Amino acid sequence: MKKIHIIGLGLLGGSFGLAAAKKFPDILISGSDADEKNLQDAINLGIIQEAKDAPDADTDIVILATPADTLNDLLLKTLDQVGENTLVFDVGSTKAKLCALVAEHPKRKQYLAAHPIAGTEYSGPKAAFGDLLDRKVMIICELEQTDLGLKEKAYELFDALNLKLRFMDPEEHDRHLAFVSHLSHISSFMLGKTVLQKMEDEKNIFDMAGSGFASTVRLAKSSPAMWAPILTENKDNILTALDGYISNLSAFREKIAASDGSGLSDEMTEVNKIRDILDLEK
Amino acid sequence: MKKIHIIGLGLLGGSFGLAAAKKFPDILISGSDADEKNLQDAINLGIIQEAKDAPDADTDIVILATPADTLNDLLLKTLDQVGENTLVFDVGSTKAKLCALVAEHPKRKQYLAAHPIAGTEYSGPKAAFGDLLDRKVMIICELEQTDLGLKEKAYELFDALNLKLRFMDPEEHDRHLAFVSHLSHISSFMLGKTVLQKMEDEKNIFDMAGSGFASTVRLAKSSPAMWAPILTENKDNILTALDGYISNLSAFREKIAASDGSGLSDEMTEVNKIRDILDLEK
Questions:
Q1: Contact state of A191 with B196 under an 8 Å Cβ cutoff
Q2: Structural domains for chain A
C-alpha cells in the first residue's frame, strides 16, 4: 500500500485519510474537494499530504466520498482516469444505482461498492477523526464483480482500519438502510421541525428538553448537502419505510385519542423487544 | 432534614433516595412500593432503610414517584396521612390535573408540584443512581400555593441535590413537555415498531444499524407502565404535538416523492438551527 487518493474530504473521506496515515506511516495520500476551504483544511489537518485533481496512475486505492447524487458521474470519470492496478471504492449510503450504472463497464472489475456504517451528525474535514471507522461494519456489495488482486488491496486497508465486513446485494442494502438509517434521519429532522415551530410561540421550551429529546433530535443536526441526495437516490425504499412509520404513528395516535391505556401499554411492550436486539448488537 | 419517605422506588424515586442518603448522612429514609420485589431491591440497594406503608407524622418530606395515572389518588391519600409539618411533592411528568385536583384541598399548602427533567430508558430500583438528578432542571408549578416554611425544606433538599429550579404554571408545563419529551418517546417507539415489522422478513437488519439508529430508537426501551399513563393523562397536548409531527412527516414525504432535492435541502437547513439551540442549552 503506497498511494491512496481521496475525492471528497469531509467526515468520511477525511476519517479514512487520518486512519490510513496512522496505520501506514509511509503512505502517500492525495486528494481533492470541490470546496477550496475544505481542501485547505484537509491539508492543514494532515488528512492528505497533497492536493491533486486526478489520481496518479500508480495509485493503489481511490476513495470516492462525495454526496450520493454526485457519485454516478464521479465513478464513471474516475474509472476513465485510473491505471489498471488501481481499485476504486465509494462510501455512499445507496448502492443499487451505482452498481447498475457500471454493471457493463469495461473497468467494472476495478470498482468495489462499499458502505461503512459510521458517521456523526457533523460534517466537513474538521469533523473527521481517525477512530471513526474503528470496529465499524463495512457493507460490501457484489464482491464477486471485483478483481481478486484488487480486492486484496481493499482487504489490506479494511483490516488495518479494523472494519468488520458484511456482504449483501445492492438492492438488499438499499432496502435495509432505508429502515435502519434513512428513516431515523427523517424522524429526527421532523421532530426538530415540530418543536422549532412550537418554539416560535414559546421561548423557553429548550430549557425543559432532557437527554431523551437530545438523543432523538441529534440527527437533525446532520448535513442537508449529504442527506437530500440520499433521500432522493433511495426514494422508493424510503417511501415504503416512511409510509409504514406514518401509518404506525397514526394508529398509535388513535389509541391515545381513545385513552386506550392498555392498548398503548401492550404496543409499547411489544416494541420493548428492541432492548434485547440493540443490547446484543452494540 | 431528618426524615424522608418515598412512595414508588423506581428510577426516579430510587435516585432521590440514593442522592439524599449521600448528601444527608444522618437522614432516615423510609418508603413503599406496590411491587414487593422492588421494595426488597430498594432495601438491599440502600435506597431506603425501612419499608413503611405510611410516613411517620414527623416526616419532613414525602416524595410521590409512582406512574402518572396513580398520582391523583395517591396524593389525596397521602395528604390525609401526613402531619402538619410534612411537605409532599410528586415527580410526575404531567402537572395540570394534579394541581386542579388539590386546588381547594385544605392541605393544599403542604403540596409542591414538581417535575425533574431527568431519566433514562431504564426503570426500577436497580436503574436508580445517585447522580441521576445532579445539575438537572427541576420544574416547579404553582410555587405560590405552597407554605413558605415547607418550601424551605424542599429548597434544602433540591439545593443539596444540585437541581436547577425553573418555575411555570401547570398548563404551560404540560404543553411544553408534550413537545420536548412525550413526542420524542412516541417517535422513538414507532420507529422501533416500524423496523421490527421489517425485521420479520429480513433478519440481519440490526447488523447494519449504526449509532444514528441506536440514538433515535433508544427511548423505545422505556417502561410502558410509566409511559402509557403519561400519554393518556396529557392526551390533548400530545395529540396537538403528534398531529403537527405527522403533518410535517407527510409534507416531507411529498417532497421526497417529487424528488425535490432543493426543497428537502432547504427544509433540513432550516431545522439545522437546532444545532445552536441544543449546543447552547446542553
A1: no
A2: 3-168 (3.40.50.720), 173-281 (1.10.3660.10)
